[in-house]
Sequence to fold (808 residues):
Amino acid sequence: MFKVNEDYLKLPGSYLFSTIAKKVAAFSDANPEKELIRLGIGDVTQPLAPSIIEALHGAVDEMGNAETFHGYAPDLGYEFLRNAIVKGDYESRGADIAADEIFVSDGAKCDSGNIQEIFAKDNKIAVCDPVYPVYVDTNVMAGRTGTYDPKKETWSNVIYMPCTAENNFAPDFPDEVPDIIYLCFPNNPTGSTITKDQLQGWVDYANKNGCVIIYDAAYEAYISEDNVAHTIYECQGARTCAIELKSFSKNAGFTGVRLGYTVIPKDLKAGDVMLHSLWARRHGTKYNGAPYIVQRAGEAVYSEAGKAQLKEQVGYYMNNAKVIFEGLKNAGYTVSGGVNAPYIWLKTPDNMTSWEFFDFLLEKANVVGTPGSGFGPSGEGYFRLTAFGSYDNTVAAIERIKNI
Amino acid sequence: MFKVNEDYLKLPGSYLFSTIAKKVAAFSDANPEKELIRLGIGDVTQPLAPSIIEALHGAVDEMGNAETFHGYAPDLGYEFLRNAIVKGDYESRGADIAADEIFVSDGAKCDSGNIQEIFAKDNKIAVCDPVYPVYVDTNVMAGRTGTYDPKKETWSNVIYMPCTAENNFAPDFPDEVPDIIYLCFPNNPTGSTITKDQLQGWVDYANKNGCVIIYDAAYEAYISEDNVAHTIYECQGARTCAIELKSFSKNAGFTGVRLGYTVIPKDLKAGDVMLHSLWARRHGTKYNGAPYIVQRAGEAVYSEAGKAQLKEQVGYYMNNAKVIFEGLKNAGYTVSGGVNAPYIWLKTPDNMTSWEFFDFLLEKANVVGTPGSGFGPSGEGYFRLTAFGSYDNTVAAIERIKNI
Fold:
């Protein structure tokens, strides 16, 4: 008789965003006349930029002709895209990454979920708290996290690194040395980031202690300050300790187009085993490449026209971030984030819990956000708003919150 | 110090198609004047059908406007596609499958690799021999297959079900009862299939013995005979024992477009745990949906125009299959397959090994095929040719083989 993976059954209840969706649906059913503004989930709203649309149409036409038709893609992704990535994201930052160290994929969520697979089951992970739920959940599914404490909402075999106002939302080095460290800067959900010097500290820590850093740089395009690294490979020594995950979802609005990539430098080894070889084996065996037309769209992201159009798009969202940040600050809220990231992180007023504030905001302002506690215990008492709405909705939402 | 997944290191050498690619490259380098014809890898060559191109262009335009832009897709895939699948692939066959039992994905390769993850590590798998390498390799990576015997080229903890001329390439029920049974009909690589009655036998066997069948129906569109099931859910009782994997790669030429789906009926349970829930959890946590534009292309596959155009495309390849089958038969080869599948499986002449015949064909006819032994020990002495080339190339290849 077949048996199921018991580790899957350890996962507590439902996913954060499902719970939100259910609560919102119930509210809408009860109050059909209320018009909701959603600043909760991190999905974009602006259409694809013209140069990307043009590239997509061109590639679709190619697929309609036998002479230019494309079947299975090369395992690592098309060279035209990997070369554009190297030039646009690494050479331009003085970071030494080669095209054959890049693995094109259908997005950073999949990669961030699958990457743990190449590590031993008894490796111990460290995560920021609060944190993007996928890092921990996928390690739970792999049986790597021990037992769950429903009261503390933590796993016995995970090292949590609190990121709160007290440490300026920058994690301290953990007391116990982990094997795998997940870092995401600019951060989801707090919207804060760390300086390049601080990141260098993490690289040094990892190299000294034999850790590997899984560095999620999905929000890199939103960096506005000079002393923040756009890639971990700007740091000395990162080639021997860091894997970097990148997304096209937030810099180019590809949440519904699906494209990302993972960088594994060939210098990153356990003994004489290159992690690059293991990921290549996974990629070749369990994955079959991003669509040709999508890879052409990705290439257009790096064209001169594409870059200019996307700079404008990111600017549009960052203006929303400013509207939220300034508006809430003026209304007396304690806010952070929003300067190098499209997320604003606010302290709930009057000692409300995150979920209490969620209900409060939904009922009083008809605005949907995300409870900080959904991202981890240290997120309790915080709340996330995203800058990915339209400008008009963003302004209206802040007005409503001010007028509560 | 982080450690790697040791199970990955158990995988022997390189992937079949990489070895072929290297041999072919070496031959081409040494013989630059020789024009090769490739009937090896199962990649399609015909362009996308006009109705699919039209759907893609339309969806691209939608992505360029804020009003019709699509971000993150629903977890299971868009309803318009899942409804089309239910109507086109199940209702039409009298098979009882609901739209919320369908999980849209980026292809059957990924799904066939990932599906093992929802099962316990100590479950024992059974595979046909020869077999599509992904089934076994992904179980090796999960630590489920025991130790490798390099002489026999088998794993100690895998049940092999030989499919040879002796049993008409239809597996016999194994002596030892497995937990998980991988079946693929019409079959890759043998090109043979089993009747609906025979498939019903497997469903009955699975229900009786508490096995789950992972049924790969990627080549369903090539079925030409009436007594062959197009879906395992045509069989009585399949809802309690079978998962079905479907691909758009071969019926619609989506190898470079990437679309597939997995069916898990809600009646399929281990105790009171629905496998549907586990796969939903994996899908929601480690995957983020197929691109909107690709799902619209998938919908077009089921339109009246799409169906007519794709029937023609499948007919084109099946005509190639006939050319190969008849040509080789007339030349004195022992051939099978090619009637309900785009693969022709031939016995190597003069007791050559599969790889000897590969080299022989490459050198004497400059034709690339796939050695049967690459798919498993019982494939030794066989060779696979695919019908996915152009008609002209297919005719030319057979002429060359005849003239050796």
